[in-house]
Design goal:
- By secondary structure, the protein is α/β, with parallel strands linked by helices.
- The chain folds into two domains: 213 residues, TIM Barrel; 93 residues.
- Helices cover 48% and strands 10% of the residues.
- It has ten helices and seven strands.
- It has a seven-stranded parallel sheet, with helices on one face.
């Protein structure tokens, strides 16, 4: 089976305004550690041993007016190293007519798709777009429909609560494929939240031009851990048996996912530090991380299947 890294970034810090200013609360947590350059060479070392045979670069939020410069720079990295093999660029798809900007991007043969992040959440920490219903915008519909003329798709990034608005966009552009980012961005890991996300995903799945991208799980698994902690604290006072059962079941699932995620992360870290004096520290930290994942999963299993007398 061919493995494609379908969503990755490389960057120079000076090109990304959000990596130059003060750290702000974001859905993916603190990011001081990535306030540096992350070149293609480091990325290639990170994926050594993973079996990845190709990759797709996804726009990393350069200043909007530098949209073509971003694609030009990534294209140069590909010319020099052979990676990445496809590019998802940025274009302001809410302007009256985006064709002039799309034509600029069309000069680069690796262009495959356009992403303009539409995700909005009632929690300001998770919010990116300025309003929840941008997907209903007629200008967006016209510009996204025009992507069919270029043979490109549109990377659709929304929260489950925005699905109805997103469906109007999908239905208005039957000639364009939509790539749903991060498996629909599940962030509410309660039973009700998972059920709502599942129903919204089912609605999107009924459209033949919608495809889901399995990415971003680390971010949402960590959010799940925070949710478990909050729910556990609440249940200390509520002493609810059913809630304890739900917390235990979710804990098993979340830490099973984190075990798989951390295993891959450790493999990537090891391939990067192999042969250096950082190997020992990396091995210890990786072992500790997996130990904590296993211990937490075991504890939730005990709570789930242990004696309730």
């Amino acid at each position: 089976m061919k493995i494609v890294d379908a969503h990755h970034h490389i960057w120079r810090q000076t090109d990304l305004p959000w990596l130059l200013g003060p750290t702000q609360p974001r859905i993916f947590g603190p990011y001081d550690a990535i306030k540096r350059d992350y070149p293609i060479g480091e990325y290639l070392r990170d994926i050594e041993g993973t079996g990845a045979e190709a990759s797709v670069y996804v726009q990393a939020n350069w200043a909007p007016n530098w949209f073509a410069d971003e694609v030009a720079w990534v294209s140069e990295q590909a010319r020099r190293t052979g990676w990445p093999h496809g590019i998802v660029g940025y274009c302001d798809m809410l302007q009256k007519d985006a064709r002039r900007d799309l034509d600029k991007l069309a000069r680069f043969p690796l262009m495959r798709s356009v992403r303009q992040q539409l995700h909005w959440h009632k929690n300001p920490l998770y919010r990116f777009a300025r309003s929840p219903d941008l997907a209903r915008n007629p200008a967006l519909h016209r510009n996204v429909a025009a992507l069919a003329d270029y043979g490109w798709s549109f990377d659709l990034q929304i929260f489950p609560e925005q699905t109805d608005a997103a469906l109007t966009l999908v239905d208005a552009c039957p000639g364009v494929d939509f790539i749903l980012q991060h498996a629909g961005m599940l962030e509410d890991t309660s039973d009700a939240g998972r059920d709502f996300w599942r129903r919204r995903m089912s609605e999107l799945a009924r459209r033949p031009n919608v495809y889901a991208k399995l990415s971003g799980f680390g971010t949402f698994l960590i959010m799940g851990v925070v949710g478990l902690l909050v729910a556990s604290i609440v249940n200390i006072f509520m002493q609810s048996g059913p809630l304890d059962l739900v917390i235990s079941a979710l804990g098993v699932l979340i830490f099973a996912g984190l075990t798989a995620y951390d295993t891959q992360k450790i493999k990537s870290m090891y391939s990067y530090v192999a042969g250096s004096d950082m190997v020992g520290k990396t091995v210890v930290m990786g072992a500790l991380q997996l130990y904590l994942d296993f211990i937490n999963m075991f504890m939730f299993l005990l709570r789930l299947f242990g004696s309730r007398d």
